[in-house]
Amino acid sequence: MDLEQRTESVEREVITSLYSNCPDATKKALGLRIINIDDALLLTATKEPSIMLNRAHGLCTNKEIKPSTIQKISATYTALGIKNYFLHLYIDDQPQASQQQLINAGLVATRGWMRFIRDSSAPHGAETELRIEKIDGGHADEFSRIVCAAFDMSDATVPLIAALANDPRWHLYASFDGQTMVGTGAMFVHDEIAWLDWAATAPQYRCKGSQSAIMAARIDQAKSLGCKHIVTETGEAVEGDPQHSYKNILKHGFTEMRVRQNYKPQPL
Asked: Rounded to two decimals, what is the model's pTM?
């Protein structure tokens, strides 16, 4: 398996972990389910509109996607009453028939996500007056509230993110101003790859070095755990966007890997 496909496999584990660690009461409150369709893994949340919990993973492979697969994915979300979701794929890898099926299903391209990768060499220096700590379950709710606010997820999702602290493959980091948590960042380790996720900062503490310092701490931890590669994602560069996250990732030695297209239902 090539490196690109290995990172896809790690993300599948990330999504599965998010679901499997979620408390049953929260799954019910969110209407959260995982559905397998052919090679795709559909994360669905009928009571939570966040795109982070409504997306189809597993189509970014070297194999051609069957047009029927796209139709079944679209029909599944429609049947569940989910009107906003992402279908991730590399459109250039797909035959015309599959591309046409996207159109037939009423799906349109929206802003993609750039995947970045680096080796586990020492992180760049990051200066901040904030204190950076690796946290445990005792701080998980605070961590989750910052993440959910930054990713436009409802309060009902707080137990979902907080539960990641129960999975030893996740390593959670936070920045503090005194005793107040102000920034977050997580790392999932699998198959000698570290996946960086859930980076967020409270609005009043932005531009204070929180994310750079948390990034450096996670890179250092990945190195100590023997990871060979470190991967992360953010929205692709578009005109008019300041690209703070994008620039911070590049500053820390990552290189652009590939833009993954996101298709979503066309607004009515």
From this structure: 0.95
